[in-house]
Write a structure and sequence with these properties.
The chain contains four helices and five strands. The protein is an alpha/beta fold and 117 residues long. A five-stranded mixed β-sheet has the order 3-4-2-1-5.
């Protein structure tokens, strides 16, 4: 099973953990937050900060941005860019309960979808 790191440790990360665990495609290595903490989210440790992405990418090759969006996508987009620059692959994680419209054009919105995976 491939390892994956979750960038973000808030409420949206909890939802992502649930979907990732159900998919059984990835083993969650840990979470990244903007400050170090000894707390755990559903049993997973916060293993570093977004300033340590490059170092963490030597241990884990997959990442997912797990920061929610309220008013603006700026934080998510910045984390996406940092993850790409650090060398992570950002797989699309879909719940088995997801519905995707037949009108969805994945190719045209590739960057957008990766930001909101």
């Amino acid at each position: 099973m491939k390892k994956i790191i979750l960038i973000g440790a808030g409420g949206h990360a909890r939802s992502c953990i649930d979907v990732i665990e159900q998919s059984k495609k990835y083993k969650i290595f840990g979470l990244i937050d903007n400050k170090k903490s000894k707390s755990k989210i559903f049993g997973y440790s916060i293993v570093g900060t977004d300033k340590e992405l490059k170092k963490i990418s030597r241990k884990v090759s997959n990442a997912i941005v797990c920061v929610g969006q309220i008013k603006t996508p700026k934080i998510r987009m910045n984390l996406y860019k940092k993850a790409i620059k650090a060398g992570f692959k950002l797989p699309v994680i879909l719940s088995s309960h997801s519905y995707i419209s037949s009108y969805k054009n994945w190719r045209r919105n590739h960057y957008y979808e990766r930001c909101y995976n």
